[in-house]
Amino acid sequence: MTTTETAPDPTLATLLRIADALERIAPPRRKDADLKAADAFVWQAVGSELVPVPKVNRVALSLLRGVDRVRDTLGENTERFAKGLPANNVLLWGARGMGKSSLVKAVHADTNLCLAKDALPLKLIEIHREDIESLPALMSLLRNDPHRAIVFCDDLSFDGDDTSYKSLKAVLDGGVEGRPDNVVFYATSNRRHLLPRDMMDNERSTSINPGEAIEEKVSLSDRFGLWLGFHKCSQDEYLEMINGYAGHFGLDVAPEELRRDALEWSTTRGSRSGRTAWQYIQDLAGRLGKKLEG
Questions:
Q1: How high is the pLDDT of residue 212?
Q2: Pairing state of beta strands 149-153 and 49-52?
């Protein structure tokens, strides 16, 4: 080393190494939401990213039978929201397999078809149950976007000591910022109050003040302005679903044979529901060698 050269500063070198290490372990920069990329998205909590869904797995609204009242109510609420008018958060609860999540997706598609040509399309964003705690981050991402969006959680419920419901409560009705005006929250659940009955009974029996003990958790469902109940379908409603699917997909089967086979299918499974009807139609189409398209 010549006399004109200076020795490297060891402190500076250490700081540079620390900066490099921190940069490598830092989480990636959150991407800006591009809601023009698709009409439906899935929220990825890891990375805070909206992943576009090119083709949504949905059933045509006309094929959903036996749910006329809740269909109309949900449709009217969604249409008002898409037009920029006041609308409610919605809880669709009740019997399994009766088309709760299918109805949300079908109403979303139907609403977009009915919008004016110059209107921005309504977006559908699915958030998984295990990512509910990241809901405030999603709301922050959507707050200043010009599009209106339905944030949708399928099969929402809470068990045991799960406290993630507090994030949902803050977004639906509380917090300093509250829910953005351009967002509504739709959820499906098999439970009306989003809690198992034995958990609620246990809270009542072991607390000094049973009413106050469960009030915080039960009040979550009160944040939904609309409660839409789905009940087990009758035999006639089940057969109406079967006939609707068979006609739509052009499955050529004699009416009496179709009726007999469909009832036998439901009896062997011990249930009548939209899901059971769809499973029978898939089996029937397979036996007939016909693809279910359109």
A1: 52
A2: unpaired
